[in-house]
Amino acid sequence: MRNFINFAPMLPDGFVNMMRGLLGGETDAFLEAMQLPPVTSVRLNRRKPGAEFPGSRPVAWCPDGLYLPQRPLFTLDPLLHAGAYYVQDASSMIHQEATARIISRLKGDAAEAFPVTLLDLCAAPGGKTTAMINALPDGSRVVANEYVARRATILRENLTKWGYPHVQVTNRDSSWFARSGDKFDIVAVDAPCSGEGMMRKDEDAVKQWSPQLIEECARLQREILTNAVEALAPGGYLIYSTCTFNTVENESIAEFIYNSLKLIDIDLDFPAEWGIPRGIGTTLPVYRFMPHRTEGEGLFLAVFQKPGVIDADSRRSVCTPSTVVKRPLKGKMQPQPDVPPIEEILSVDFDRTRFPMVELTEQQAVSYLRRESVVLPPDTPKGICILTYRGLPLGPAKNIGQRANNLYPKGWRILMR
After folding, report:
1. What pLDDT is attached to residue 309?
2. Which residues of 9-47 are buried (b: 16+ CB within 10 A; e: fewer)?
3. 277, 26 in Cβ contact below 8 A?
4. Same domain, 270 and 381
């Protein structure tokens, strides 16, 4: 695995020239920042409290975000696998705040926020989905979609560990949602992009860069967004984001949403002290995260509203299984008939009175997550039990007396030694 600290990207000349044209006098500061190692940050799961990070600093735009003084071995931390936190770039955490501000607008003068429906069209690996879930009122329904089947499998694992119970992972083309008839209060499109914002931590982003890639991505983004608007309820909100710097995939796409798709631009009015720059060459209220101005990787964000009005009273009954939810991602993660599904065990709604709960030490928890055999306390009842770490469920085991059969999902096991 590449060490982030030792990686300094050799930026393509074409990219550097493009950025000089966009940033002018800020270019040198930007290029210097692009040679610095990325910061490490995590976002806590507000529904699974317990993770602590001594020496951390808060992320200004995310109440659950923390900058860490150094990068620990996250893979060997049982709390990560229990869903207590998500390792995420700080810039991407803005999706939690953006969603919270949309929820506030939907709530209006109501006494409390009502459940909503959210579709994340390009959701893998799940970081932005979990960020938005952190801001949703309880009872809201989420459909997390990923077109690439392999990435959809990773998405399901991450969302299962996050533990929010009202999530469905799907593996479809965006056009399916345009035809389905389902309408969502919020549709998020974290679009496939040229990835310029990831260049200082991802060598592939440097190698693949070209003007042709930018144009190809912009065409795909327009196609996905056209479908996304069809799935958006009247009065609903579209969140558009990329992890790139060029204006072709950012401001120009925002202008496409405004002029061609006829959505209303929304100013989220982030506080000036957060230091998030506005867009380049546009009057639309869009936001840019730039490594020389904000502490994190590159990201672009814009929010729009579909014309129309959402009736708060009618939306209270809309959060029920839809035609989307009836077609889940294929494959089972837990084949044992007498064992509850892992999605149920890791859910924040799991009934802990159904099975004995057995607390593990850190060393025992890591062994369990490696799918090694575990020895439980002698007074543990025989049969299915749920193993926990710091009070959070990790998964099931079957106690047979002298030892316990490890029933952790094989595809999730820790391989690091």
Report:
1. 86
2. bebbeebeebbeebbeebbeebbebbeeebbbbbbbbeb
3. no
4. no
Catalytic member of 62, 243, 319, 385: 243
Residues 307 and 352 in one domain: no
Nearest-CA neighbor of 405 among 365, 361, 374, 367? 374
337 band by pLDDT with thresholds 50, 70 and 90: low
Task: Return d(Cα 368, Cα 414) in angstroms, integer.
Answer: 9
Predicted confidence band of residue 9 (pLDDT cuts 50, 70, 90): confident
Helix (H) or strand (E) holding 222, with range, is: helix 211-230
Tell me which residue of 331, 389, 9, 374 sits closest to 195, measured CA to CA. Answer: 9
243 belongs to the catalytic site: yes
Q: Is residue 42 within 8 Å of 68, Cβ to Cβ?
A: yes
Per-residue pLDDT tens digits for 385-397: 999 999 999 999 9
Count the domains in the chain.
2
Cα 115 from Cα 21, distance rounded (Å): 45
pLDDT of residue 325: 43
Taking residues 30-39, what's their average pLDDT? 95
Is 156 in contact with 130 (CB distance < 8 Å)?
Answer: no
Q: What DSSP element (H or E) covers 40?
A: strand 40-44
Query: Which of these, 197, 220, 219, lies nearest to 209 by C-alpha position?
Result: 197
- The CATH number assigned to the domain holding 392 equals 3.10.450.720
Distance CA 225, CA 252 (A): 13
In a domain, 268, yes or no: yes
Secondary structure (DSSP) of 138-206: TT-EEEEE-SSHHHHHHHHHHHHHH--SSEEEE---HHHHHHH---EEEEEEE-----GGGTTT-HHHH
Identity at 169, one-letter amino acid code: V
